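Translate sequence into structure tokens.
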Amino acid sequence: MTVTNGILDFVNKREIQDLVSRYILALDEKCFNNKIFETIFAAQAGVKLPSIDSVCGDIDTIMNLHRTLLSQFESTHHMSSDLLVVFITSKEATVRCNLSVIHRYNKVGKEKNGEEFLIVRDVLEGKVRQIGNKWYFFDVCIKVIYRQ
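Result follows.
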């Protein structure tokens, strides 16, 4: 590896870390609008979220899937571990991190199960691709490891 390649790998890893952070922030802030999701997902992407089958689709489809899943919560907070990035090519990589998530049910959800909070340990795995000079998810899977 040359110094130039090492610097480029470092910059790309940093940009991918930023991508994952923007995704988590969008979930926590419930920023379900096209301008935000267009900076996170490729025009066509696949998503597998807890309690929902895999879905492939455009930005609106992916955004609405997230909106629907999180609608039962008044608020949510995701905390991530360090991100593991493995480059497949110079323009494609896999990512993995652990998530600790605290969801606060909205009043409808609380009435359903009597609980105020849901605490979850997840693993986020995905594939990212560089399009132009920006990185985007084209595949995301969030797997529940533990739920309380």
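Note: The CA atoms of residues 36 and 65 lie 15 Å apart.
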